[in-house]
Amino acid sequence: MKHKFLAWAFFPFVLALSHAQVASHAPTVFKPAPAQASQSSKAQTPDASTRPTVAPSKAVARVNGSILTDADLVREEYAIFPYARQHNGIPKDLAPQIRDGALKMMVFEELVYQEALRRRMTISPARLQRAQQDFRRQFASPDEFNAFVQSEFHGSQPALDEKIRRSLLIDAFLKVEVEDKCALTPGEVKAFYDQNPARFELPETYAFQSISILPPPNATPAQLKEGRARAEKELQQARATKSAVEFGLLAEKVSDDDYRVMMGQHKPVPAEQLPAEVRKALGAIKLGDVSDLIQVEQAYTIVRLGEHKPAGKQNFQEVKAQLEKEMRDKRRNQLRSALDKKLRSNAKIEEM
């Protein structure tokens, strides 16, 4: 009975696992896998203890003859899943998906790099120098930087410089072929808003606090009677509260539903998702008022109204910035996907 009661729209906590493909990301100046996050706001700097240790000699793919290694694959996996250190590596259930996404990204960037070379694109010495300086600033000391170069590039500064130049070329190519083409005019954003009115409609919502008295499974008539008496007692206490805090403290103490740990607080809920009895009770009281006793099957609930928003529609100015970002991101992904397909069509790609 308790589980059935909690299933109605008092919103039990639910965790949803996203099955979406790993999103592509713009290449950045080459850097090692991210260090484990800390509470400090200061940027983390890489060191030997926070970099993934992968032998750089094993090939994972060949793109038009160019070799991509497992060391680069691990870096890309860490870019996709930056919480790897907290999980002591990539979680096993996510590993195949993340590896597949990382490998596809590596191949894509290699194809972009090769096309940039074919078009004879270049990076100015000044731009390269700024990128080199930015990269060095990630390290706490010259010794730490030198240790990184020794570890990752066998002490070869030119090899690191070439890696940075490669990333800058990829960025430059994608700016021309993707970023510069995904800009939107104000008219396009407004047209989408006008053509999709249903998306911006807002349902009637209620935010409230609850105190619930739930019967035990297979409750006897005597237990049900006892539950009713208890509910009436708690109703008197609830009506005696003078604020959301007082009501919340009472909920923590006497409520049986899961929301007692949050002082009985429910975030805004669409009215249509609430049981008819609860919706009717909320509609009959003013902000800050406490309802009468509400019976839903064999359970009893008391609610305190915190917020009521009638149904309406978001105006264009409210959603303009977010809508423009969503449309731009969608166009960017479409352009990248089309570019990837085009570059792959004439490429020889072998995965190891």
Mind explaining what this structure looks like?
The protein is an alpha+beta fold. The protein folds into two domains: 59-186 and 324-351, Orthogonal Bundle (Triger factor/SurA peptide-binding fold), CATH 1.10.4030; 204-310, Chitinase A, domain 3 (Roll), CATH 3.10.50.40. Helices cover 47% and strands 13% of the residues. The strands form three sheets. The chain has a four-stranded antiparallel β-sheet with strand order 5-4-7-6. A three-stranded antiparallel β-sheet has the order 2-1-9. The radius of gyration is 29 Å and the shape is elongated.
Summarize the structure.
This protein is of the alpha+beta class. The chain has helices spanning 2-7, 70-80, 95-118, 125-136, 142-153, 157-177, 186-195, 221-240, 244-254, 276-283, 316-345; strands at 59-63, 66-69, 201-202, 205-213, 265-270, 294-296, 299-309, 312-313, 349-351.
List keywords for this structure.
352 residues, 47% helix, 2 domains, Chitinase A, domain 3, disordered N terminus, alpha+beta, elongated, Triger factor/SurA peptide-binding fold, 3-stranded antiparallel sheet, 4-stranded antiparallel sheet
